[in-house]
């Protein structure tokens, strides 16, 4: 490809609404353009990256035994009504009526569609297992589209679904997909962690997220460098502390203190000169319609996915101020565990606490030296707060490392949730009809592109992994008016193409600095700079990631790049 013929509209300035590097750089480097909130045109450079990501995915999925299908993006409402999700999926689902007033949705995910296909065609255990996947567009009407391709309303996704005659075979395929995803993200050149995760709206018995490590990631994860345990903070388990020995011997007398207008944990901490970890935080939740009081250490936050699991709940929400007073008889900001009319459920973080500060149950007052067991009872200790770096690993006890990550893949063991609801059954060897056991496996293709930029960039632009770069090499003649430079550049360009490299020739009549800035901004891994030594048969090779520069003879460029890229 010649730059003069390419559609690569680079920009000097970032868009005003861009907050993170991938959004800024993908626009500036000419990969994407905004159409409306959460909707983007994918320009030629972006399309090249996406096709390369898709190629790796297809190769590895087919290596793993999956087969590609293409499903409609218009989903008839009756399929979602069968699964029970039409009315509960939420406002993210884009619904509409056709000319006959029939209800449809633009597919946000495809469990119903694929289950409908398989139940019509597969009848016997002899036709199982089956793993079908597609790569296509998905639609979710995000309440707040942001971060460019990270959270958009239309995106490209690979979703796969497997069907099995037994739970054991479904679990075998789950780990087959786990290994397949690990190979995919390694080939894409990404630093990632596979972490235990919550199953969320998709459902199922267990799941793993594949997280690209990046400081700008929306998600948090913890992992153990010793034993390999890794989990999202939605899923990570706290180690339940031991109750301190002779705890009662440390108890001091309760003291009421005047705290005028002081409500928030941070304010109480400053006013009483007490660290937040020595303050008891009380929260009132409505869990499946009933009020529940949660106690946790003042510096901790409730992780609602863990809260749902601890109470086996479908719906959890914080109580309103009015509900708090109605349920407890106490004012918000001064809730006390002492004398509450509701049972108190305490997070594991409360177990080691002794002589802590808590609300007094009346406005403008707090209590010092409160202790569970003496001053109030705990109905049950539960694991409902997020785990942090430095806390012990639940598997081996070593300190956990905390990172931020971007979810780019998620695999689920679904079980029979959809097959039972939609009648996807098979006849087993004994002639019995049974529901198929399912698995679900997704990769956000456009999100992978953005995540790669979040992980690979510097002040000059993008640094693509070679496997998914729009071009592997760019040849830059510094002066297209000098014949010897143009001839050398054309020769290198031709030889690289003949050798199978994906190469761009910057044949524009522009200043060298302008060309170099564009090459760095676009992020092409290797730059062959053809300059004043071209008459001597010498060019310069710049490695984008490291900035290293090498002088090479013109006839040595192909061999050196084969060596660097690992192509025989």
TrEMBL record:
Q: Which UniProt keywords apply?
A: Aminoacyl-tRNA synthetase, ATP-binding, Cytoplasm, Ligase, Nucleotide-binding, Protein biosynthesis
> Where would I find the Aminoacyl-transfer RNA synthetases class-II family profile domain in this sequence?
33-465
In terms of one coarse class, where is the protein primarily found?
Answer: cytoplasm
EC identifiers of the protein: 6.1.1.15
Catalyzed reaction equations: tRNA(Pro) + L-proline + ATP = L-prolyl-tRNA(Pro) + AMP + diphosphate
The UniProt entry, under Pfam families, shows: HGTP_anticodon, tRNA-synt_2b, tRNA_edit
From the Swiss-Prot or TrEMBL record, state where the protein is found. Cytoplasm
Q: Which InterPro entries match?
A: aa-tRNA-synt_IIb (IPR002314), aa-tRNA-synth_II (IPR006195), aa-tRNA-synth_II/BPL/LPL (IPR045864), Anticodon-bd (IPR004154), Anticodon-bd_dom_sf (IPR036621), Pro-tRNA-ligase_IIa (IPR002316), Pro-tRNA-synth_IIa_bac-type (IPR004500), Pro-tRNA-Synthase_IIa_type1 (IPR023717)
Q: Which GO terms describe its cellular component?
A: cytosol
Q: Which family does it belong to?
A: Belongs to the class-II aminoacyl-tRNA synthetase family. ProS type 1 subfamily.
Q: Fill in the subunit field for this protein.
A: Homodimer.
Annotated NCBIfam families = PRK09194.1, proS_fam_II
Recorded protein name is Proline--tRNA ligase
The protein's organism comes out as Thermovibrio ammonificans (strain DSM 15698 / JCM 12110 / HB-1)
Gene responsible for this protein: proS
């Amino acid at each position: 490809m010649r730059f003069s013929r390419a559609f690569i509209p680079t920009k000097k300035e970032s868009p005003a609404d861009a907050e993170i590097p991938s959004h800024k750089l993908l626009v500036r480097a000419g990969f994407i353009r905004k159409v409306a909130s959460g909707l983007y045109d994918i320009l030629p450079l972006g399309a090249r990256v996406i096709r390369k990501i898709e190629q790796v995915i297809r190769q590895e999925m087919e290596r793993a035994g999956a087969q590609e299908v293409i499903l409609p993006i218009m989903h008839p409402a009756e399929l979602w009504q069968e699964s029970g999700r039409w009315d509960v999926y939420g406002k993210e689902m884009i619904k509409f009526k056709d000319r006959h007033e029939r209800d449809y949705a633009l597919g946000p995910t495809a469990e119903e569609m694929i289950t409908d296909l398989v139940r019509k065609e597969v009848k016997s255990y002899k036709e199982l297992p089956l793993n079908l996947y597609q790569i296509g567009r998905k639609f979710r009407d995000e309440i707040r589209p942001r971060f460019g391709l990270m959270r958009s309303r239309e995106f490209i996704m690979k979703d796969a679904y497997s069907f099995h005659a037994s739970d054991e075979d479904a679990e075998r395929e789950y780990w087959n997909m786990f290994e397949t995803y690990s190979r995919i993200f390694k080939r894409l050149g990404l630093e990632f962690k596979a972490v235990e995760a919550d199953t969320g709206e998709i459902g199922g018995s267990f799941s793993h997220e594949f997280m690209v490590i990046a400081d700008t990631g929306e998600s948090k994860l913890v992992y153990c460098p010793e034993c390999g345990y890794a989990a999202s903070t939605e899923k990570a388990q706290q180690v339940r502390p031991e109750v301190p020995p002779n705890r009662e011997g440390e108890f001091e007398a309760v003291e009421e203190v005047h705290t005028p207008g002081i409500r928030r944990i941070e304010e109480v901490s400053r006013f009483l000169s007490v660290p937040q970890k020595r303050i008891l935080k009380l929260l009132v939740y409505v869990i499946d319609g009933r009020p529940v009081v949660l106690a946790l250490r003042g510096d901790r936050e409730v992780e609602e996915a863990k809260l749902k699991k601890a109470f086996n709940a479908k719906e959890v929400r914080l109580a309103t101020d009015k509900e708090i007073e109605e349920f407890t008889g106490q004012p918000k900001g001064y809730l006390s565990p002492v004398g509450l009319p509701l049972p108190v459920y305490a997070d594991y973080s409360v177990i080691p606490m002794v002589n802590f500060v808590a609300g007094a149950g009346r406005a403008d007052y707090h209590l010092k030296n409160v202790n569970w067991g003496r001053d109030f009872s705990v109905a049950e200790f539960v694991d409902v707060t997020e785990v942090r770096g430095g806390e012990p690993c639940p598997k081996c006890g070593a300190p956990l490392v905390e990172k931020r990550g971007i979810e780019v893949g998620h695999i689920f063991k679904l079980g029979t949730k959809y097959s039972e609801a939609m009648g996807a059954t098979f006849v087993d060897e004994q002639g019995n009809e049974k529901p198929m056991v399912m698995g679900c496996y997704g990769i956000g293709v456009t999100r992978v592109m953005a995540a790669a930029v979040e992980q690979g960039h510097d002040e000059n632009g993008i640094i693509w992994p070679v496997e998914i770069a729009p071009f592997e090499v760019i040849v830059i003649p510094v002066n297209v008016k000098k014949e010897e430079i143009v001839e050398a550049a054309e020769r290198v360009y031709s030889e690289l193409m003949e050798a199978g490299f994906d190469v761009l020739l910057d044949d524009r009549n522009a200043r060298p600095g302008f060309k170099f800035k564009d090459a760095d901004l676009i992020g092409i891994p290797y730059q062959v700079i053809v300059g004043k030594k071209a008459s001597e048969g010498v060019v310069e090779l710049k490695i984008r990631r490291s900035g290293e520069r090498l002088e090479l003879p013109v006839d040595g460029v192909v061999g050196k790049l084969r060596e660097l890229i690992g192509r025989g």
